[in-house]
Amino acid sequence: MIRVVLPAHLKKLANVSGEVSLEVPSPLTQASLLDALEARYPMLLGTIRDPTTRRRRAYVRFFACESDLSHDPPDTALPRPVELGLEPFVVVGAMAGG
């Protein structure tokens, strides 16, 4: 099972608390993980990625194993500890402004 940590506003939208656990088909990539997340929680469709282009929204970031994965290509394999369920894939709503 893949562990996913969502920001508070997406947890509320998906009506979940704590981490989300997902079965994700191989190969485990950002794209396959987000496909599985949106399939299980269709109310999240369009909140993390643009539904047409499938590109990450500008103010959303992805982290795993203390690394920023936000600019990795969507088909890049996720770190092994995420695949093994030892570390979560973290979705963060970034802030901007001054």
SS elements, strand count: 5
Our count of helices gives 3
Q: Return the CATH topology.
A: Ubiquitin-like (UB roll)
Largest sheet: 5 strands, mixed
CATH superfamily: Beta-grasp domain
Q: Overall 3D geometry?
A: globular
Strand percentage = 15-25%
What does this structure look like?
Strands 2-1-5-3-4 form a five-stranded mixed beta sheet, covered by helices on one side. Helix content is 22%, strand content 19%. It has a single domain (2-93), classed as Beta-grasp domain (Ubiquitin-like (UB roll)). It is globular. It has 98 residues and is α+β, with helices and mostly antiparallel strands. Strand 3 (60-64) and strand 4 form a beta hairpin.
Short description:
With 98 residues, the chain is an alpha+beta fold. The protein is 22% helix and 19% strand. The protein starts with a strand and ends in a 5-residue tail after the last strand.
Features of the shown structure:
alpha+beta, 98 residues, Ubiquitin-like (UB roll), five-stranded mixed beta sheet, 3 helices
Q: Topology of this protein?
A:
Blueprint lengths: L1 E4 L2 H7 L5 E3 L7 H11 L19 E5 L2 E2 L11 H4 L5 E5 L5
Parallel strand pairs: 1-5
Antiparallel strand pairs: 1-2, 3-4, 3-5
